[in-house]
Structure prediction request, 612 residues.
Amino acid sequence: MSDLVIVRRILTTLTAVLVGASALAVVPVALPSAQGEGEPTLATSVAEGLTGTSIQVSGTGCYLPDGITGADGVLFQLIAPDGSAAASGTLPVERDGTWDAPFVVPNGVPAGTYGVKGTCIAPMYEDLGVVTAEPFTVTGAGAPVPEREPATPRFPNEIEAYPTYDGQSTCSPAPKPGMIAYRDMVMRAYPASSSYGISRDCSVGGTSEHKEGRAWDWANDATTAAGRRRVADFFRWLFRTDSYGHRHAMARRLGVMYLIWNRQIFRMYRANEGWTPYTGSSPHTDHVHVSLTRRGGNKRTSFWTMRLSGPTDPPPPTDPPPRPRRARAEFEQTARAVDGTFEHAQVGDFDGNGKNDILWYGEGAKPEYIWWGRPGRGFVVADIRAAGRFRPMVGDYDGDGRDDILWYVPGPGQDYLWYGRTDRSWDTGPTRVATRFPGSAVGDFNGDGRDDVFWYGPGDGLDKLWFGRADRHFALRSLTVGGDFAPTAGDFDGDGRDDVLLFGRGAGSDELWFGRTDRTFDATDRTINQSSSPIVGDLDANGRDDIFWYAPGTTPDRVWWGSRSRTFGAGAVTNVAGTYRPAFAGDFDEDGHDDIFWYRAGTAPDYIWWFQ
Prediction:
């Protein structure tokens, strides 16, 4: 829970004179030197204006004490002559310690001249230094700044179940994409309020979802009518029954786990109790605390995806039952021409725009491309140059919402990591695996929002796990698998943690390992008896991955539908005529159903099956 007292959450103070677009670099107080070059900077766009004026504030160099992870925010304040804060707001800081966001001068600030300061903040940190700056002038009253509840998208009937409690169990303080999006949505709706931040250093205080980047403190004053009115307005929206009769609809769709405000707590996992007394060390009269589920923190709930991402049978109240599963897989087929010969194709959202892209890689001197996803089942083609013989492995290893590429050379060669950027370029650097692993699988096995690597060597060969970290390193762990398997990853039970299918072709033994938050697995024996190749994807858009068993030629193909009971339902599908390699799944039209791309080298046509 969030038991902290919100008092002066300050790491380092940066100041600037608000004149034109000038920027002033200042010497930080006790700022670690482990990240980046140069001194922190703060830039602003205007020096005076009416209330309601938007000041664009940008800068660099705002970190947690590790010198790597960006802090929660920059507390931007207008300081009255008596030293009190006449206006304040927290601007979000990216994971690289930079920020670029507007500060709106709120209604009610009297005309006059105010000092200005910008403070890098994170929960539970005391004041490490304050530097004043030259003044900003409020020239008078402008038009009122409107505040209204967030917009409500149009959703399908299906909705998330009420959550179970899943408290902090790992150290992962970097803000998660769903928590960032939740915060930004609320701050856009209520610009006169402030943010007290998301992240908390793992060495500070007890258990808290702040330490996993999926909790946020929204600054509001419960002793004022304006503060109480603002929070009540938001809670009405958050808990409103929707047009389908689903109670607490937006809270469920956003993945809210619990909220604390003004000495009360609302637990979504015990929603029938409503608001109950909260007796933690902080009364939460100066902020609203919200903790999200792991799916909510990872932005994998229906508020953002517009599709169901979890079970459909919530405890309270009783909602309509989920629609029955169709035994036969249904799809629409279209031809697609792929120019070139490629040994590898991998799917990922490399620019973080919510659309799946495709990496086409040919070994050696063969061509390499990225097909950037765009609306309307289309792609934009661009060249890349990896120049080597790699086995590319795609995953969001640092949890920033953009997929990355691990260029792996089996054996002693040089490996590389390319981290995706929003401008479709890459942050590149060397890494070293230094071991030949015949098998591998990428997935978020512990559900912390960052993808991990399962390295597999058959028999007595070496096996390892690499757990992704926000600082772009990996936490290494050894494990023992044995056997002779082909590993494949997918979230087959829909619990937000990827699992590993260890498939032994033919009559060999098979295993299915279900991921756990403690970085271990629940290992189960399976009997598959397939000579086919598994293609994993959520073909029926129910939040659980399915397996398409593909055998080249005339061998019958099958679909296994994933289930939260950790079993599979058998389904039929039209047989695939021909030999395709690679064949792979991804949601290429943003309808929530993963589709399958059937590629084969040469002049024969390629196809996409658009599942429905």
